[in-house]
Amino acid sequence: MNPPSATAIGSPLPQTSGESRASREDILHFVGPRSAVYVGNLPDPLPQDSTKEPSRSRPWFGGWHWPAFLWTVPWMFYRKMYSGGVILIVLPVFLDHILPGALFLGSGILIAVACGLFAKSWYAEHATRRIGKAYREFEDPRIRQAYIEHAGGVSVAGAVFGFLTQVATISVIILDILPLERL
């Protein structure tokens, strides 16, 4: 899929019921770096109420995303999807507790593949919810814009935390599996 053109990115989203006021410009401000990767996965129109289902003209997955596949938890925290990152930290530990060695039986690979397939779509949904919240809660465009930029973007500290947490989680699971001799 080719990235959207600059005129398509800056143009407002189609207005179907008068409730959508967001534009592709909001998406650019929310996503920050590499916004073209995610803009094509957003529903048209952007919903202003996160309780309503957006009309979908896009596929349910956004295509393969290597960073989310290779660095699943750090990517989630880098993109400020903290609840998803926490779930992906807890899930392998939980699976390993129920079935020792589950990480090596494929659960880790399955989680990584699922993230590689659905990451763009998940992030697009995350962006639409946060932008919708900004439009519901802030009348002043300057405050709304500041909220969108703060809620979106990236977090290098989050990525470092996610990386260290993922390494620690894998280390704990490996130590749980390997029989270690005590001194």
Q: How would you describe this structure to a colleague?
A:
Helix content is 63%, strand content 0%. It is mainly alpha-helical and 183 residues long. α6 runs antiparallel to α7. The longest helix has 35 residues. The N and C termini lie far apart (57 Å).
- Low-pLDDT regions: 1-20, 48-59
Q: Identify the overall geometry.
A: elongated
Number of strands: 0
Fraction of residues in helix: 55-70%
Q: Helical element count?
A: 9
Largest sheet: none
Mean pLDDT: 75
- Which structural class should the secondary elements be placed in? mainly alpha
Strand-residue fraction? under 5%
Order of helices and strands: HHHHHHHHH
**Radius of gyration in whole Å, from Cα?**
19 Å
In angstroms, what separates the terminal alpha carbons? 57 Å
Summarize the structure.
By secondary structure, this protein is mainly alpha-helical. The protein contains nine helices and no strands.
SSE order and pairing:
Blueprint: H1 6-10, H2 24-31, H3 35-39, H4 66-70, H5 72-78, H6 82-98, H7 103-137, H8 141-151, H9 156-177
Helix pairs in contact: 2-8, 5-6, 5-9, 6-7, 6-9, 7-8
